[in-house]
Write a structure and sequence with these properties.
Lipocalin; 2 domains; 2 helices; elongated
């Protein structure tokens, strides 16, 4: 009886370990944002304009990286002046002044790195930032080989590999 019970426990542990490895293999990789929902409403356009090219990279060593780009637009102008000549009668220089107006676009890349871990029987993904030690916990709603659905509060992220 003890041998059968021991065999069943050992088999359960082996199958659980295989299942965990398959789950981790599906989870690791580079995930790019496909859809963003806030409060159940599609806000992908707003998210994508703020966090351009958002990507979450989870590697095998439990390290993660979040990358995206932000854009800033600022109106600016340049005033160019050129001396065309000298008017000897009025004793004044003839100066041409031109103003060129443009929009200054600044692209700022963002990189956050840290350690990721699975919590609550692999239902939650915890991201701990290296620089600030801040923790973000996402509920894993769905995971397959090319789709990952995460939820944190009112935010839902649909990511694709």
């Amino acid at each position: 009886m003890k041998k059968i019970l021991l065999a069943v426990v050992a088999l359960t542990l082996v199958l659980g370990a295989c299942n965990k490895k398959a789950f981790l293999k599906k989870l690791t990789g580079t995930w790019k944002l496909n859809t963003y929902l806030f409060d159940g409403l599609d806000r992908t356009v707003y998210f994508d304009t703020t966090f351009r090219e958002y990507a979450l990279d989870l590697n095998d060593n439990n390290q993660y990286a979040i990358t995206y780009k932000t854009y800033a637009f600022a109106p600016d102008s340049v005033i160019l002046s050129d001396t065309l000549g000298y008017d000897s009668v009025n004793m004044a220089y003839i100066v041409s002044m031109d103003t060129f107006r443009y929009v200054d676009t600044t692209v700022t890349p963002f990189l956050e790195t840290g350690v990721w871990d699975l919590l609550n029987s692999d239902e939650d993904l915890q991201l701990r930032n290296d620089s600030s030690n801040a923790v973000a916990i996402y509920r894993i709603l769905n995971l397959d080989k090319s789709n990952l659905k995460l939820k944190k509060g009112n935010d839902e992220l649909y990511l694709k590999k």
